[in-house]
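WARN retry 2 of 3 for item q-0093 after timeout on previous attempt; input resubmitted unchanged.
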Amino acid sequence: MTKKEIAALAVAELEKLYPAAECTLDYGEPYELLIATRLAAQCTDARVNIVTKELFAKYPTLEAFANADLAELEQYVKPCGFYRTKAKSIIEMSQRLISDFGGVVPDTMEELLSLSGVGRKTANLILGDVYGKPAVVTDTHCIRITGRLGLTKNTEPHKVEDDLRKLLPPDKSNDFCHRVVEFGRDICKARSPKCGECPLNTFCRDYAKKK
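OK item q-0093 returned
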């Protein structure tokens, strides 16, 4: 079975398992997703959602974030870890969105990567969820699971992204990555994967090796 065939089967099975492919971060405006994703670095989405509920109430507009007091913002984002770096980049990002992009989150990879604290993972999430463009978000779940399936031998996010873009249908790639997150939490866990009950085990190369 080729990698492309395995990818097609994985896409189909995960669609059955998780019909609603949704981002697990709570947000209303595109810039809020940008901020939430920045906070999610080295932090769980569940904790970020707790923090942003209060954060977005305190700073209800992009302008409010751009004009935020750094020390005060740090205290709000502190539960997410690396709070000094994250707070600083949130303010810089917000100021740049206003000064260079008219307050609108850009819709190209190049422009998104020019924003403070934004990497390819965040940029892909914005492109896929906000603008509906083909995107591959290579978080830890995606890297682990696609590696186990045999779709990639790489572990570096950008290389995994390149590998998956060659295998996943462009119109399915973004939703596939959302579903992989749920699948990684429920079944294909990092330490104790539930291989025996996994609906993907008939074509999983890692499971085949175990058998």
